[in-house]
Write a structure and sequence with these properties.
- The protein is an alpha+beta fold.
- It folds into three domains: 182 residues, 3-Layer(bba) Sandwich (FAD/NAD(P)-binding domain); 111 residues, no CATH class; 124 residues, no CATH class.
- It is built from 16 helices and 22 strands.
- The strands form six sheets. The chain has a seven-stranded mixed β-sheet, sandwiched between helices. It has a five-stranded parallel β-sheet with strand order 10-2-1-14-22, covered by helices on one side. A three-stranded antiparallel β-sheet has the order 5-9-6.
- Helix 1 packs parallel to helix 10, helix 1 runs parallel beside helix 16 and helix 4 crosses helix 9.
- It starts with a strand and ends in a 9-residue tail after the last helix.
- One of its GO terms (molecular function) is oxidoreductase activity.
- This is FAD dependent oxidoreductase.
């Protein structure tokens, strides 16, 4: 029986472990943290549970490829309730509110009523949302394993989408938004996502929501990760927690195991790193296998931006269920997250639809804000200054929340601030990023199969192999890695015992 060592018990690592066990391998996962899930996680503060990952999950719609994969790895099943709400978000400005409905027909009718003068842009946008439903973004196997017939079928499917793909991959979200005359519509689209990324990213997201494939699994991120851990253990897999991998052992151009940070070694026939990409390439492999493309991806942040954020989570002794689940608004004062970054828009999500998150009559809200990693890294050198800045941000956010949600005044019981350094400490995340690179019109990023030139029996997997990352990427690439190993060994890949 061939043995595989997997670095990291996040979604990609556990997915690789589950499919590895199903396909007859002996697998072991080494995880630096004390719990599974990686960045798919949550934490408790008093009576409240703060979710640190899922806003909505692609693959919750039954009979889709992704849904089948989530079920194969134990993340979803018939007993997990999926919540779908009508709006992606509501945007408030100058006393007006715009609801961004998930259903494209409803959205088109609603936007036309608000701004008949934008009829052309509205119709083209909603048409694109409908058409992009046909885009296959969750294939059963990686493109490099496709046969000629597979590729012909893929080309035939994508041909009708080419005009839309070409149009919206060549412009930014900001440029897309500027076509709308109505200021509220323009600002809603501009502030939904980072303004410099490809507009197609936003439209594919809205298309997924329009198809009904963007629900919330009750219990949230941490419980989903624990279900996968249970599935992996049921197949005989082993996870070693608080076991940080320091180096990947290489003998004669072949990965042969790992060395832990306590100096002890573990041997295997294959090594899969589902850990952070930079930590894998630069630290565990000493930078020896980074080609020019990889060096540029990890060094030129201006061209290849990443998600570096602060998450503020609040537990309040009041019911906020009457408010939109995801609300964007402008506070009276910007929230300064350090390094000169002032957040003009607050994106606030409440979790009143999931009663496992807070006791009855109480509410949890979370918000992500842009952050400057270098500034926080410098600040972290002084624990006193670091803690002061966290408290300052908590106070500024609470002031804004109490102003917009008056029910919370005097009722806030818990506040938690996760900085970019929090992501580094718990997940070893490069520059505190919780996803991989954002894709811009000028700098597209090709999928990386995960194998490195000059290093056999080694694979990288997870979101740092396929931008822009996220949970579906972790799931798919974890599966694809085992498919590649099975292909090398001429094993027939299986999805169940």
């Amino acid at each position: 029986m061939k043995k595989i060592i997997i670095i990291g018990a996040g979604i990609a690592g556990m997915t690789a472990g589950i499919y590895g066990q199903i396909n007859g391998f002996e697998t072991e996962i080494y995880e630096m943290h004390s719990i599974p899930g990686g960045e798919c996680t949550g934490w408790d503060r008093g009576e409240y549970h703060f979710d640190g990952c899922i806003h909505w999950l692609m693959g919750t719609k039954p009979e889709t490829n992704l849904n089948k994969m989530w079920r194969e790895v134990g993340a979803l099943d018939d007993f997990i309730e999926i919540v779908n709400y009508d709006c992606y978000c509501s945007f408030e400005e100058s006393g007006e509110t715009l609801n961004l409905y998930k259903n494209a027909d409803r959205l088109e009718k609603y936007l036309l009523e608000i701004s008949p003068g934008d009829s052309k842009a509205i119709s083209e946008t909603c048409k694109a949302i409908r058409v992009l439903r046909k885009l296959d973004i969750s294939p059963n196997k990686p493109g490099d394993m496709n046969s000629i017939l597979d590729n012909i079928k893929k080309i035939m499917k994508i041909l009708p989408l080419v005009p839309i793909l070409k149009k919206y991959t060549s412009i930014t979200v900001k440029e897309f938004a500027e076509q709308f005359k109505h200021p509220l519509i323009r600002h809603t689209f501009k502030d939904m996502l980072p303004p410099y990324i490809q507009a197609i990213s936003m439209l594919v997201m809205l298309s997924t929501m329009n198809s009904g494939d963007s629900g919330w699994p009750m219990g949230g991120s941490k419980r989903m990760a624990l279900r996968m851990e249970k599935k992996y253990h049921s197949l005989g897999g082993k996870i070693y927690y608080k076991s940080k991998v320091d180096k990947i052992k290489v003998d004669n151009g072949k990965a042969t195991g790992v060395i832990l940070d306590d100096g002890s070694g573990r041997s295997a026939d294959y090594v899969i790193s589902a850990a952070d990409g930079y930590a894998t390439l630069q630290n565990m492999l000493d930078g020896k296998y980074m080609d020019e493309r990889l060096k540029k991806l990890y060094s030129v942040c201006e061209e290849y931006p990443i998600h570096t954020s602060i998450q503020v989570s609040i537990g309040a002794n009041c019911d906020l269920s009457k408010y939109p689940e995801f609300l964007f608004f402008r506070p009276s004062n910007k929230v300064n997250t350090g390094g000169g970054i002032g957040n003009e828009i607050l994106r606030v999500k409440h979790f009143c639809f999931d009663r496992s998150i807070a006791p009855k009559g109480k509410s949890v809200i979370t918000l992500l804000m842009n952050a400057d990693f270098d500034w926080w890294q410098q600040t972290y050198r002084s624990k006193e200054t670091y803690n002061f800045e966290k408290k300052r941000i908590a106070k500024e956010v609470c002031t804004a929340i109490e102003e917009r949600y008056p029910e919370t005044q005097g009722k806030i019981e818990q506040v938690d601030v996760a900085t970019p350094l929090t992501y580094v400490r718990y997940c070893n995340a490069w520059r505190g990023s919780w996803m991989s690179w954002m894709i811009t019109p000028k700098h597209s990023i090709k999928y990386m199969p995960g194998n490195l030139k000059g290093l056999d029996n080694f694979f990288m997997t997870g979101q740092w192999t396929m931008a822009p990352g996220g949970l579906p990427t972790a799931l798919m690439t974890g599966r694809w890695t085992i498919q590649r190993i099975c292909s090398q060994l001429q094993y027939k890949f299986k999805t169940s015992k």
